[in-house]
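Q: Structure tokens for this one, please.
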Amino acid sequence: MNELLNTLMQDARVWQGDRHIQTRQPAEPTGYQVLDNHLGGLGWPRGALSECLLDAPGIGELQLVLPLMQRLTQAGKTVFWLNPPHTPYAPALAREGVDLKQVVMAHTDDNGDLLWTLENCLRSAVTGLVLAWPGKLAARDIRRLQLATESGSNICVLFRNRKLAGQSSPAALRLELEAGEHQDLRINVLKRRGSWPGQRCTVAMAHRAHVPFPESSRIVQGPWLQSGL
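A: Here is the predicted structure, written as tokens:
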């Protein structure tokens, strides 16, 4: 029994708030070295949920996932946007090297449709990344999505309200985001596999182009003609 317990405690998937354990779980670099350093030198966990918690959209959260979008779309993987608060601006994404042919946006009518769409995207072999703005989710819904993410070995980032920071979540990575000065983004690591919470860093976004959420944009799904850029 003791041997079984010791083996379990050494598994990085068992989160221990006061201990650091080197994890060998697959991950993708964020593209920001200062943040990767706080994530054990890894980045976005693959085959696991990540949560970005913020007060309102537009503080730099898109720039945070931009390097990942660039890398995955250029590798031929599809990036799904599910229920974004506004339509993403395709010209800005294209200027930053995102392959628009690999970007798909979808809107769902209710929570049931959202979960069904999320699950199918996460289980698909063509998927590299799923970005979703789900609103309210029950703990059982998050566990359901976690299983789908594990099945597809994809990356899923959920953008949720910062008020949920104090609630427990089965997500492997939880980041609390705040707008800083000079287009900086302040990040508080609430949870990550194999380490403790409370690590903070500031990521400079000034060197990256602004990727806005223009409400007037009519673009809903790639690919987009070059003349439209």
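A few notes: Residues 40 and 144 are 26 Å apart (CA to CA). Residues 61-74 form the longest helix (14 residues).
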